Amino acid sequence: PATSRRARRAACRVSRRAPPSARLQVIISGAPASGKGTQCELIAAKYGLTHVSAGDLLRAEVKAGSDAGNEAKKFMDNGQLVPNEVIVGMIVERLGRADCAEGWLLDGYPRSSDQASALREAGIEPDVVLAIDVPDEILVERVVGRRTDPETGKIYHLTFFPPPPEVVDRLVQRSDDTEEKCKARLEVFHTNNKAVTDAYDGRIVTVDGDRQKEDVFADIDAGLQAAMA
Length: 229
Description:
Elements lengths: L1 H8 L2 E3 L9 E7 L5 H12 L2 E4 H11 L2 H11 L6 H12 L7 E5 L5 H9 L6 E6 L2 H9 L1 E3 L6 E3 L21 H21 L4 E5 L4 H16 L1
Parallel strand pairs: 2-4, 2-5, 3-4, 5-8
Antiparallel strand pairs: 1-8, 6-7
Helix pairs in contact: 2-9, 3-4, 3-5, 5-6, 6-8, 7-8
């Protein structure tokens, strides 16, 4: 994709500095297997931000049986998408808690222009949006080679992080970690992500994610420092 070629020519591009804030408010975006989870851990640790994963939040609310969780479960049980207002309500409440007072890192939301608009209407505005860019062929390779140890939950990769011989026979592959399904997910991601980046034009930091995690984080760090200046 053209986005990947541009990102690889410039490892980190800051389209414009975000307005300074008393606390850093960050949204992070990346395709499946882009390394977003690893970078979230590094960002949260260095900047003292509270990592809020929209997917984890939704599952936790459903498990806890909260009002919002029960409302979401009705749609999920019927195989329907959870409406924006339900998820946004969860996110607004979560970002308003005390542990987010020093800043937050929102992961996995928004995923469409409608969701970005819903956040804006709720008063949620990031200082900066991090976009981790990895070529599709690399993402497919990362996904197809993933294997999980059902006893420990640890994730390996047949090429990049080989499992020890004693656990190989019990490893399993997720049903959606196939090339066909991965490509379908990437197509959806690219379509939706274009709308999200357009919604936050001027606050995007694009980082080349096809490198060692330390190098990726170095550019993310530089982008966040620029946003705070």
